[in-house]
Amino acid sequence: MRKRKWFADLLKEEKWLNDRLAEGYACRRIGSLGGYAFEPSDRKMVIRLDYQRQMSAEKYEEYKGTYADFGWTHLKGNRWGSVQYWQKPADGRDEIFSDAGSQVAFYKRLTHYALTTACLFFVYTCAIFNGNIFAALFDIKASYLTEGLWEKEGAAFWRAFLFETPFAMLRFLPAWIFGIAIVMSLYSYFHYLKRKKEYA
Amino acid sequence: MKHPLLPLSETMHYILLALKEPLHGYAIMQAVEQMSEGTVILAAGTLYGAVENLSKHGWIAPVPGEMGRRKVYRITDDGERILAIERGRIEHLLSLYEMRG
User: Fold this and answer.
1) Is B46 among the domain residues?
2) Would B87 be classed as within a structural domain?
3) Which residues cross the membrane (chain A) (predicted)?
4) A69 contacts in chain B (CB < 8 Å)
5) pTM of the predicted protein model
6) B42 CB near a chain A CB, below 8 Å?
7) DSSP-based three-state secondary structure for A125
8) Chain B, nearest residue to A61 by Cα
9) Which of A94, A96, A130, A200 can bridge A48 by disulfide, Cβ–Cβ 3.0-4.6 Å?
10) What are the tens digits of pLDDT across the range B2-56?
């Protein structure tokens, strides 16, 4: 079974993955563009997501080795500051954090990650659109550069309009995608913050 | 100012005590499970983070010469000093328990 889905919120992604596993699947592969491959599994499996900041190759080997010793299989992740996907057969010892301190530290890493992502997208957007993110988002007409386009009428208008639309989209879509990325990062930031507060 | 890791959490406390003998990650979990009579069962992420934190503060250190995939850790002199401070704190608490029935 293959699924395609995109998550900004890592806690929701973890829940969604475990819901699929509860239907009798094991995750076989996680692609980089939101593709998930599952296969039927006789054993009940669990997935846990961790987030780690950039670390040395040596540290990363130690990190992965520790999880492997506890029975976790690494599904996806790299050492450059990324989400780490871990899967194992359920056996009652299915958590990756066993005390409040490490759970809170995890949420702290997540809030930092979400806020950094939001800031990065904001800076990119400002750089690309010369600081005028609102014009890029809401003044879609300005993305059409054909002179006198909006004064044309009937078939002449539609021909010119449709002809230019793909080019105009190249101008306004990045602003929309970045805008959505900023909003979703901020949204998950507040979600993580809420979960963190439940612990400390 | 007091050290941010003091007083020690239960996790840190057990790990420091377990590392009076050299152990690698998974063996630390097993030792702690036994020492705590099954009440403290460390999970992978918690153990990794605690070992990382304790070695950052120099309270435990990898044992040199131990080769292989798994790093073996042992408590350092600084770590022993921390345990001595904690011992004093807990003994004082215990004496209060006795005194106040």
Assistant:
1) yes
2) yes
3) 113-138, 168-190
4) 25-26, 44, 70
5) 0.84
6) yes
7) helix
8) B69
9) A96
10) 788 889 999 999 999 999 999 999 999 999 999 999 999 999 999 999 999 999 9
Q: B101 to chain A nearest CA, in Å? A: 30
The shortest CB-CB distance from A102 to any of B26, B49, B70 is to B49
- The tally of domains found in chain B comes to 1
CATH number at residue B83: 1.10.10.10
Residue B1 lies in a domain: no
Domain that holds residue B60: 10-99
For A147-177, the pLDDT digits (tens) are: 788 888 888 888 888 888 888 888 777 777 7
Residue B8, SS3? Answer: coil
Q: Which of B15, B47, B60 to mutate to test the interface with A (most CBs of A within 10 A)?
A: B47
Give B-chain residues touching A63 at CB under 8 angstroms: 48
Residue A182 to residue A73: CA distance in whole angstroms: 32
Domain ranges for chain A, please list them: 2-89, 100-199
| A-B contacts at Cβ under 8 angstroms | 62
